[in-house]
Amino acid sequence: MFRTALRNVLAHKARLLMTVLAVMLGVAFVSGTLVFTNTISDAYQNSSAKGFDHVDVAVVPKYQDSEGDKVGKPADLTQATLDKAAKVPGAASATGVVSGFTAVADKHGKLAGGNWQSAGGNYWGTKDARYPLTSGHAPHGANEVLLDAKTAQRAGYKVGDTVRLSVDGPVLTPTVAGIFTTDDGNVTAGGSLALFDTPTAQKLFGKHGTYDEIDVKAKPGTGQAALKEALDAALPAHQVKTTTGRQLADDQAKTIADSMSGLKQGLLVFAGIALFVGTFIIANTFTMLVAQRTKELALMRAVGASRRQVTRSVLIEAFVVGAIAGVAGLVAGIGIGAGLRALVGSFGASMPDGPLVISPGTVVAALAVGILITMLAAWLPGRRAAKIPPVAAMNSVHATATTKSLVLRNTIGALFTAAGAAVIVAATSMDASSGEAPMGLGAVLLIIGVFVLTPLLSRPLIAAAAPLLRAFGVSGKLARQNSVRNPRRTAATASALMIGLTLITGMTVMAGSLQSSIDKMAASAIRADYVVSMANGSPLSPDVAKKIAATDGVSASSPLRNAETRIDGTTEYVTGVDGASIAELTDLKVDRGSFTIGGDRVVVDKVRAEEYGWKTGSRFTAHFEDGKAQTLTVAGIYDGNDMIRGIMLDNKVLTPHLSRPTDMQVMVKTANGASTATKDRLTSALGTNPAIKIQDKKDISNDIAQMFTMMLNMVYGLLGMAVIVAVLGVINTLAMSVFERSQEIGMLRAIGLDRRSVKRMVRLESLVISLFGGVLGIGLGVFFGWAAGELLGTKMPTYELVLPWGRLVLFLALAGVVGILAALWPARRAARLNMLTAIKAE
Amino acid sequence: MTTTPTAGTATAVAARATELSKIYGQGETRVVALDRVSVDFRQAEFTAIMGPSGSGKSTLMHCVAGLDTFSSGSVRIGDTELGSLKDKQLTKLRRDKIGFIFQAFNLLPTLTALENITLPMDIAGRKPDKAWLDQVISMVGLSGRLSHRPSQLSGGQQQRVAVARALASKPEIIFGDEPTGNLDSRSGAEVLGFLRNSVRELGQTVVMVTHDPVAAAYADRVIFLADGRIVDELYGPTADSVLDTMKQFDAKGRTS
């Protein structure tokens, strides 16, 4: 049995080629993902493990939970705690760690590290074991800083240079006192690290004589566990938490593995889509191979093979095909993994070095996926093969494609489609959280329904294209008829393309609508000309707001100052604003009362008002982080949105309660409106700081657009694989059709159809099938986009469906291009067909 | 008997092969399929080509019909010399001047009987001559079945569609490759009757390859091929006279 199957595979090499390629691409995607994420994950784990070499036990402050009217915050790790830790038996030394965000500008004024990887810290004493100096000396005082060697080299700084830095807004210009090397994960990943002496770091990062962490080194002969025990005994248990270095390394490794597994799962979803598309091709191919071998299989049955043996022979064939594709896919996947690493590296985000990791799990997964998918998809054709009666061997009639009635299939399909659509429509009227599950269910039902219905849909939809095809004369007519000749095969081919296009269209519609609604929200809620914020979203020092207010041409400005409070025993984040200016800077719809902020008068959004049962004039008590309470009065209730919401009170009331006030944004209104000159003035007032973003409304729109474009491009790229597999499917179907119809094509050539017309006939068939898939996919995608938007719209008042017509036309054109490209080779083959052998072929 | 040149006949020639040779392979594997064959197919004449398998009868037909290339010599259809034509021109020639009837019917299953009949005109983008089309269709007795698809027709009916297709475009010459090979004797007789009628009544020229003496007896003239040469010729054949002629050079066994 195995030998027969193997022979069959070898005999049909060419016809199995596309199937192997399709499975291979899916497997390559899977194994590429695994290789890439394992490699990155391993490299990060190795580099982070090194980072804990200097820590035997880490002492961190315990978070004091919010309770009653008390605002929660971490306990202070004071100098006293550090001194105590250093004197614990078994401790060799204790290092206080302070860290925060520090942007370093290169010589052209640009950020030297990425937005999220610009870190700052403290250099402990005169010789810090964590950071070996390669040149210079330890920093001393507010005017000296150390830079890591990679950043110094990248930005071109050497000892003695003046460097421009920013921690929370104001620009600092210390001198580079020294250069150090480090194993810090952020730095190996391309970020920057700037170190100050401890008092400067504490001041800059707002730590006021406290530490974020105390790292204790053990004396030789003292184990980490013993040291931890000693520390636990000596330090106040309710204020600190101790962890051994080994535990930290393990925790970090686990965190990295977790974050990588998120990426891995995301990528595997797309790989799964590509594989799913591949199953349609596999099923098509095996259905055809079985149909072509009807006589042969019937003969096997006639000479005594059981049904199960026939099915098994088909499955063995699938196994061989899957195994070949699995191995090829694995090899390609390893290449992809290596290529991805190089690609990510070339984007500037350098990653820690490490060997390419090809785990046994990857190998097993690749082979298993390839083999199982192929066998699963070949199972139905295999069963159909078993149903061939032995008498078919005697029958001289050519086995025609299954003409079995589609009635049952259509009924099932219609039921699924109707149910799916109904559930989705019903879900759109629910609110966002409760509608999600029914919508997902509806989407699955609808997609299955449409899959099942495609053979039925193919006739009317392709008939609709008839007037266009008529322009191509007899080629067009024959192409149209050929494309509906085997509705199941056409349907499977078109479905494969449909999947990718449905997802692409759905994502595009949703993203476009979301973008425009967020845009609208940003534009409609803000009256300010500029919004100033930190490039990475970290908080700004109140100095920035002060400097802005003092800048020429600024007519009104207000920081948005965030603070945590307790109201009625729950945590509530409030926003402190400049009460006098805020009405000029925002444009919020006031529901009731008036938009007045000042003294004890505050405004609250509708959601909060409902939650707490407030009306205009209601009074409530807020407890601040300093433990003090303040009674406030609701002056007005406004419609909040994603950018501005919650309780807004005057900074004059809020700030005295804060130990370290920080602003998320500063809104700015200028006398002459947004202009380059105004922006330049603001920029220079803030010291030309690369870490600060000054955005007008257009910049904000662009930012939002950029975010969506990036996300969409990523999704397009990942779904591109599914489309490529679908293209292979179209090629496969056409090649099969050309092969099966060679006698007809030979006859057509004999009675006078020229080569060009034969080519055109195949190309048009391909175009018709692809456009059919394209129309279905885009239609479904728009429907899903609409439905998902309706659901989201309940959360976003400004949501409105935006159909990106340009994109939709582009996608349809893409489907057409897919059709033309896929037909290149089959059309050539058809045109080159040897007429005489074709006519004679029985 | 030897090859009889057809010089001196009064009727015009529809197709003529002169010194036609077709050679496959080279050196050791060299096979001569046609060896300097010269033959005329006169207008309004029904010619049958016979010979044992491997005699070159099909090759001769394919070369004269512009389906296959030849190694040397010349072939003319009407005034057109085939040897100098490119594939595109050959295709146009087949479309406009030649009709074909195949052993395996070779109809398009997606088209109705009528659409199959008018296919060559569709390909050429010409409107069929309605009166002529009706005449052909009623002659082959398909009037009631024009909207049927090939799968709904019997073998005999399918081959009648093929005959109508060959006749419909009024070609200069019709080539048949074992047109009755897949038919029972009654259907075969019908088809041959149509072909003969088309020659007698409509002045059509027909050339048919066959291995069946009964089929050959419908022709006006039978030429016999063996080893790539024309070895005999018979005018006004009967099944018996054809059989007798075949027995004379029966060295390798009769037919395929």
From TrEMBL, chain A:
Keywords, in A-Z order: Cell membrane, Membrane, Transmembrane, Transmembrane helix
Coiled coil: none
One annotated GO molecular function: transmembrane transporter activity
GO CC annotation terms, alphabetical: plasma membrane
Keyword Transferase found: no
Subcellular location per the Swiss-Prot or TrEMBL entry: Cell membrane
Keyword Cell membrane belongs to the record: yes
Chief location bin: membrane
Domain MacB-like periplasmic core: start-end pairs: 17-233, 490-683
Homology family: Belongs to the ABC-4 integral membrane protein family.
Protein known as: ABC transporter permease
TrEMBL record, chain B:
Keywords: ATP-binding, Nucleotide-binding, Transport
GO annotation, cellular component aspect: membrane protein complex; plasma membrane
Domain of life: Bacteria
Pfam families: ABC_tran
Family matches, as InterPro entries: AAA+_ATPase (IPR003593), ABC_transporter-like_ATP-bd (IPR003439), ABC_transporter-like_CS (IPR017871), ABC_transpr_LolD-like (IPR015854), MacB-like_ATP-bd (IPR017911), P-loop_NTPase (IPR027417)
Gene3D superfamilies named in the record: P-loop containing nucleotide triphosphate hydrolases
Transmembrane regions listed in the UniProt entry: none
Molecular function in Gene Ontology: ATP binding; ATP hydrolysis activity; transmembrane transporter activity
Protein name: Putative ABC transport system ATP-binding protein
